[in-house]
Amino acid sequence: MIEKEMHTEINSLKTEIKRLRKSLAELTPPLGMLLKRRGFRVYKKEPSEDLLLPEAELIDDFYSMLQKYSFRLFLRDVIKHQNLFTLERVTRYATAEVTGDYLRYLLAIRLAEKIPNGYRLIKQPIKSFGETLEWFLSEIFRREFCADAIWGIKFKRPRIGGDYDLIAKVDGSILYMEVKSSPPKQIYQKEISAFFDRVSDLSPEIAVFFMDTELRMKDKIVPMFEEELRLRFSDPPEVIRMEKELFQISDRIFIINAKDNIVRNIEKVLSWYFRR
To answer: Which of 238, 168, 172 is nearest to 210 (CA)?
Structure first.
C-alpha cells in the first residue's frame, strides 16, 4: 500500500515538473531568439530525405518502438540491405522470434513490403539511420522534458561549417547534442575536434556527445576526448566518470551512450548540470 502511494506521488511530481517546465518555456525567449542573440540564424533544418517514419497516426507507437535498442539496431540492418533483405540477414542483435516481430511490425505500418525472395523498404533510398535517430532524440526532448528542440540544423557560418545534429532549449539554456549512430570503432579524432569547434562557436550552456551504442566509452571515445583536450588546453580539464558510461568535462560537456536507457541518461545529464 505504501509502495503504491509512493509510486502515485512520484508520478504526480513528474507531471508537475513537466507542467512547470512547459510554463517556463513559454515565459522564456524561443529557441530561435536565443540562437539569434549568439549571432546564429537557422539556414536549414530537419531534412526529410532520409527520414524513415510511418504515417502521422502511427508516430506515437513508432516512437515507443524506437526506445528499444535492439529495434534501432534492427532498423540499421534493414536500411543497410534496403533493396532486398531476409529475416536471417537482419537477425544479428535479437532472437529470431523478436526480429520476426519487428519485421511484421514494419510490414504492418507500411515501411517495408514483401517481394520475391525477401523484403524491401518501401521508401528508398535511405542513406543511413542518422536522420531518424536525430528525429527520435529531438522527440525525447519534446515529449519527456517539454523542451523546444530542432535537429539537422545548418547555419551560414564562415568559420565553423557542418551540421549541428540537435539543439534544444532547456529552461532558457541552449543544449547542443552531437548524435552518432556509428559504433565507436567508426569514430575518428577529427569528429571529436569538429564537436569541440562547434561547442566553441555556439557556446551552449550544455553540450552532449551521444553515441547510440551500449559498448564501453572508456576504451576509445574517452581517450580521444582526453587527447583533444590536451591539444586545446595547456592545463586540460579532466574527463570524469559520472557513473557507468556517462562522463562529464567541467560540468558542461557530457559524453554519453545508450546503455540502460536514453531518456534516463539525458535526465542524469540535465540533473547534473542544474545541480552543479
So the answer is: 168
Q: Specify the residue for cell string 569528429.
A: 191
Rounded (5°) CA angle 251-254-257: 150
Cα radius of gyration rounded to whole Å, the chain: 20
Cis amide linkage into residue 183, ω under 30° from 0: no
Per-residue pLDDT of the chain (276 residues), as tens digits, is: 666 666 677 667 666 666 665 655 566 899 999 999 998 999 999 999 999 999 999 999 999 999 999 999 999 999 999 999 999 999 988 899 999 999 999 999 999 999 999 999 999 999 999 999 999 999 999 999 999 999 999 998 767 766 899 999 999 999 999 999 988 999 999 999 999 999 999 999 999 999 999 999 999 999 999 999 999 999 999 999 999 999 999 999 999 999 999 999 999 999 999 998
Q: Which has the closest alpha carbon to 90: 77, 73, 107?
A: 77
SS3 state at 150: strand
Separation of alpha carbons 248 and 238, rounded Å: 8
> Taking the C-alpha atoms of 96, 131, 226 and 238 in order, what is their torsion angle to the nearest 10 degrees?
-100
The residue type at 75? L
DSSP, residue by residue, 56-99: GGGHHHHHHHHT-HHHHHHHHHHHHTTTSB-TGGG-SSS-HHHH
| Inter-residue contact 135 to 65 (CB < 8 Å) | no
Cβ atoms of 185 and 253 closer than 8 Å: no
Report the relative pairing of strands 246-249 and 240-243 from DSSP bridges: antiparallel
Residue type, 234: S
- Enter the pTM of the model: 0.89
